[in-house]
């Protein structure tokens, strides 16, 4: 028969391994929200528009509004013109 001390040591080791495995299996998955995450971490720079595109389009040829992939410029007081960014 196994000595009592060795048997207890094996029990403690098995219980420790089982509890460690259980903790790892039930641990929450990583999220992108938290106090130490950048507020801009969810924004990914698109390689197409990353270089100087203001992302503005014309709204009924009246004013420039937000829109991906375009550059808007005002034409006097009469309206605006949008061109695709390259």
β-strand number: 4
Mean pLDDT: 78
Helical content class = 25-40%
Question: What is the SS-derived class?
Answer: alpha+beta
Please state roughly what percent of the residues sit in beta strands, choosing from under 5%, 5-15%, 15-25%, 25-35%, 35-45% or over 45%. 15-25%
Shape: rod-shaped
Keywords:
86 residues; alpha+beta; two-stranded antiparallel sheet; two-stranded antiparallel ribbon; 4 strands; rod-shaped
Structural overview:
It is a single chain. With 86 residues, the protein is of the alpha+beta class. It has one domain (4-28, 48-84). Helices cover 27% and strands 23% of the residues. It is built from 1 helix and 4 strands. The strands form 2 sheets. It has a two-stranded antiparallel ribbon with strand order 1-2. Strands 3-4 form a two-stranded antiparallel ribbon. Strand 3 (70-75) and strand 4 form a beta hairpin. The protein is rod-shaped.
Task: Describe the structure in brief.
This protein has 86 residues and is α+β, with helices and mostly antiparallel strands.
Question: How is this fold's topology laid out?
Answer:
Blueprint: H1 4-26, E1 56-59, E2 63-66, E3 70-75, E4 79-84
Antiparallel strand pairs: 1-2, 3-4
């Amino acid at each position: 028969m196994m000595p009592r001390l060795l048997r207890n040591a094996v029990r403690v080791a098995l219980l420790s391994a089982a509890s460690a495995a259980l903790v790892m299996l039930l641990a929450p998955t990583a999220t992108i929200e938290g106090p130490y995450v950048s507020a801009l971490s969810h924004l990914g720079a698109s390689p197409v528009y990353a270089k100087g595109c203001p992302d503005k389009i014309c709204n009924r040829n009246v004013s420039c509004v937000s829109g991906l992939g375009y550059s808007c410029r005002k034409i006097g007081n009469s309206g605006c013109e949008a061109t695709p960014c390259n």
